[in-house]
Amino acid sequence: MYIEITDETGKLDSSIIEQTEKVLAFAADYIHLSQSKEMAVIFVDNVRSHELNLQYRDTDRPTDVISLEYKPDEDEIFFDEDMEIPEGLMDEMDPFIGELFISTDKAEEQATDFGHSIEREYGWLTVHGFLHINGYDHYPVGGPEEAEMFRLQEEILTAYGLTR
């Protein structure tokens, strides 16, 4: 999987960037995601996180991670009306799956609040956002989707070695 990582804050330690790339590759293998997939991770501060949260989620506050899942628009790709589109062809034609925006400010706050390492917090935010852009969700709260997503998230983090 190709991962483009950008640190808009300019203050992130290179070990966190390296960990992010490794944990994403691990998570992709764990859920059997095609190696041809591509995604972006952008580390931002709370000001930018607030702007993005307002723009995409209509929520007027910063947040820890924003996941923007990308789904190709099949209507923009033209095939003969009688042509059957082979399963998986759309995935191969457009490998980009989405973007994660991770707030470095929130990561630092939450690592302190939850009493675990900053590495664990960045790993948690990365896997959480990654699962969102791959179709997992935790709404409605208390529902089976939430239980499945959080179970898988913890399973991936534990297998990777980022335990509480």
TrEMBL record:
Gene Ontology terms for molecular function: metalloendopeptidase activity; RNA endonuclease activity; zinc ion binding
Main location: cytoplasm
EC number, as in UniProt: 3.1.-.-
Cofactor requirement: Zn(2+)
Superkingdom assignment: Bacteria
Note on cofactor: Binds 1 zinc ion.
Keywords: Cytoplasm, Endonuclease, Hydrolase, Metal-binding, Nuclease, Ribosome biogenesis, rRNA processing, Zinc
Record-level GO BP terms: rRNA processing
Binding site for Zn(2+): 128, 132, 138
Location within or outside the cell: Cytoplasm
Gene3D superfamilies the UniProt entry points to: Metalloproteases ('zincins'), catalytic domain
Recorded GO CC terms: cytoplasm
Family, per entry: Belongs to the endoribonuclease YbeY family.
Job of this protein: Single strand-specific metallo-endoribonuclease involved in late-stage 70S ribosome quality control and in maturation of the 3' terminus of the 16S rRNA.
Annotated protein name in UniProt: Endoribonuclease YbeY
Organism: Lactovum miscens
